[in-house]
């Protein structure tokens, strides 16, 4: 049993390095406050369900890590309760590395990054692949999305932490940029019509 939720990442070796490099005191204060959050807050739930991309990390029985990208429309990641995130696992290259890793070692990690907001969230927990559950698949499948669900994945949160925005480049989604440009063009067209009207009024006068 870990003394603090942050011990999922701050092993004795990590703490020894923190002490040697001068950051242990500040993280000890975090531990005194109970460590990281273990429940999904409303703010975190909103952030999770707004994402269109996530990285899922697993490791096999030998400890070899693997990271896989998962994507979909906003809302493809669903917060089912204050400890559980679920999503449909769409059919892909059918290597099944993540599923194989989780059968041997259910410890997993989610990394979410929002480039526009320059915010990243790290979530530790355990994951389970659920096969042959049409009801759960239907619940987690994004409406109208053109993808075939292979199975579903349920992720149980153990702890989470938010990183500072330092060194995160600010980028924008193509759809958001297109919408902003379209609104700009509509505004320009409206102003051009107004200018033409005023010129006509002036010429008549």
Cα-based radius of gyration, to the nearest Å: 23 Å
Number of domains: 3
Principal-axis shape = extended
DSSP, total strands: 7
| Secondary-structure content class | alpha+beta
Q: What is the ordering of alpha helices and beta strands?
A: HHHEEEEHEEHEH
How much of the residues is beta strand, in percent? Answer: 25-35%
Number of discrete helical segments: 6
- With strands numbered from the N-terminus, the spatial order across the biggest sheet is 2-1-5-6-7-4-3
Distance between the termini: 86 Å
Describe what you observe in this structure.
This protein is of the alpha+beta class. It folds into 3 domains: 1-35, no CATH class; 37-163, Roll (Pnp Oxidase, Chain A), CATH 2.30.110.10; 173-205. It is 36% helix and 29% strand. The chain has 6 helices and 7 strands, in the order H-H-H-E-E-E-E-H-E-E-H-E-H. It starts with 11 loop residues before the first helix and ends with a helix.
Characteristic terms for this protein:
3 domains, alpha+beta, 7-stranded antiparallel sheet, about 200 residues, about 30% strand, 6 helices, Pnp Oxidase, Chain A
Provide the fold topology:
Blueprint: H1 12-21, H2 24-32, H3 42-50, E1 53-59, E2 65-71, E3 78-81, E4 84-90, H4 97-104, E5 107-114, E6 119-130, H5 134-140, E7 149-163, H6 174-204
Antiparallel strand pairs: 1-2, 1-5, 3-4, 4-7, 5-6, 6-7
Quickly describe the structure:
The protein is an alpha+beta fold and 205 residues long. It has helices at 12-21, 24-32, 42-50, 97-104, 134-140, 174-204; strands at 53-59, 65-71, 78-81, 84-90, 107-114, 119-130, 149-163. The model has no long low-confidence stretch (mean pLDDT 92).
């Amino acid at each position: 049993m870990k003394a603090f939720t942050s011990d999922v990442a701050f092993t004795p070796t990590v703490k020894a390095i923190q002490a040697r490099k001068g950051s242990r005191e500040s993280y000890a204060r975090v531990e005194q406050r109970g460590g990281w959050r273990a429940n999904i807050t409303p703010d975190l739930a909103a952030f999770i369900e707004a994402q269109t991309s996530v990285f899922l990390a697993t490791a096999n029985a030998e400890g070899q890590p693997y990271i896989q990208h998962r994507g979909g429309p906003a809302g493809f990641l669903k917060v089912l309760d204050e400890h559980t995130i679920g999503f449909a696992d769409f059919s892909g290259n059918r290597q099944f590395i993540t599923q194989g890793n989780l059968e041997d070692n259910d410890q997993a990690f989610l990394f979410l990054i929002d480039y526009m907001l320059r915010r990243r969230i790290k979530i530790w927990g355990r994951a389970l692949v659920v096969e042959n559950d049409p009801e759960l698949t239907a619940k987690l499948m994004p409406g109208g999305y053109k993808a075939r669900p292979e199975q579903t994945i349920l992720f149980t949160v153990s702890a989470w932490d938010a990183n500072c925005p330092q060194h995160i480049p600010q980028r924008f989604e193509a759809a958001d940029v297109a919408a902003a440009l379209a609104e700009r063009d509509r505004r320009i067209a409206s102003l051009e019509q107004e200018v033409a009207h005023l010129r006509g009024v002036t010429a008549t006068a």
